Amino acid sequence: MMETILVTGGAGYIGSAAVRALIEKGHDVVIVDNLSNGKKKFIDSRAKFYEVDLVDKENLAKVFSENKIDAVMHFAGYKAVDESMENAVKYSDNITGTVNLLNMMVKYKVNKIIYSSSAAVYGIPKEFLVDENCALSTINYYGFTKLASEEMIVWYSRIHEFKYISLRYFNVAGDAGLNYTDPDAKNVMSIIMEVLAGKRDKFVIYGDNYDTRDGTCIRDYIDINDLVDAHILALDAEENGIINLGTSTGVSVKELVDMTMEVTGKKLNYEVGSSREGDPAGFVASNEKAKKVLGWVPKRGIREMIKTTYRAYFG
Ligand SMILES: NC(=O)c1ccc[n+]([C@@H]2O[C@H](COP(=O)([O-])OP(=O)(O)OC[C@H]3O[C@@H](n4cnc5c(N)ncnc54)[C@H](O)[C@@H]3O)[C@@H](O)[C@H]2O)c1
Fold first, then answer.
1. Which range of residues forms the domain containing residue 115?
2. Are the beta carbons of 19 and 7 closer than 8 angstroms?
3. CATH number, domain at 81?
4. CA-CA distance, 232 to 121, in Å (whole number)?
5. Could you give the residue numbers annotated as active site?
6. 204 and 114 together in one domain
7. Most buried residue, 18, 47, 215, 270, by most Cβ within 10 Å?
8. Is 137 left (phi over 0), alpha (psi -120 to 50) or beta?
9. Rounded distance between C-alpha atoms, residue 127 and residue 283, angstroms
10. Residue 92 and residue 179 in one domain
């Protein structure tokens, strides 16, 4: 059924890819983004765009009164972990923005939300393979804002009877054909691309003495196109739920380095540094629940993510 979907953060990396997929499915899309990290060039011209901050209740109300919204995909949020530990005031906007959005949904009787949560809600997990029942324990303020928002959504759903799916993404990588390059590279894949581009001297592997197949940490990478597929499936989900999005397998940092050189044909300047306190040897999402509830399985592998990211950076 064709619906009008409000996409918060629709000028950002993941939101812009979701907007395009929604439009291609025949939906109408309304975007709200404050352009703090998003870019005008990523805003799909077929969508209706409001440059509004979610903390600005008055202007957010206009978005709801001027459009008949059927469901919300809530991507908007600040996401730099280090910055969240220096500026709680800014990162509290992730929570305030979610509260404002939920209140508008109640007022305008919008009864479905898909929320971008994060693996950060697990802190430093004890388990290698993390499922949704593993202990939640945030170790940075960013993670807390994600967990707080998740919990609010559950409560609002109980009290105001709307449907929700919160998706806990692991590391999102790859390009959705929009040639996205990260303005503030913090994740491994974009850092690697910046080393290849000569913007940084070298890539550092933090420790090679972990109890893993090659001694380096194992992490889980999910392709942005697979992630968007999961959101589209979540729109039609029958049940509510909080669901991990990852591969159940993972890739070691050394494997990622080797595969980058193999796929790009370029030499990556890297060194092995000392391990960082609190870095778990493995941190991989079990995707059993995603399979069961959404019928979702990741289709693209790490080589494809490297290839499309490389293309986005180097043309
Ligand atoms: N990229 C990842 O690996 C990853 C992993 C886990 C979770 N997430 C979550 O997914 C969501 C999208 O991430 P992304 O990588 O696309 O980030 P992004 O920064 O590219 O996109 C977020 C967008 O939200 C906008 N925004 C931020 N605060 C806002 C506010 N108060 N009001 C209106 N707009 C606001 C920004 O301008 C930006 O366009 C975020 O909530 C992030 O926490 C991302």
1. 4-172+223-245
2. yes
3. 3.40.50.720
4. 23
5. 142
6. no
7. 18
8. beta
9. 8
10. no
Domains of the chain: total:
2
The predicted model scores a pTM of 0.97
Q: How far is the CA of 61 from the centre of ligand 1 (A)?
A: 21
In the block, residue with structure tokens 């990741």:
298
Co-location of 91 and 135 in the same domain: yes
Same domain, 276 and 165: no
- Cα(121)–Cα(117) distance, rounded to whole angstroms? 8
> In terms of domains, do 189 and 97 share one?
no
Among 6, 7, 8, 13, which residue has the most ligand 1 atoms within 8 Å of its CB, making it the best to mutate?
Answer: 13
Q: Is 106 helix (H, G, I), strand (E, B) or coil?
A: helix
Ligand 1 environment, Cβ below 6 A: 9, 11-15, 32-38, 53-55, 75-79, 93, 97, 116, 118, 169, 171-172, 187
Ligand 1 centroid, distance to 149 Cα (angstroms): 14
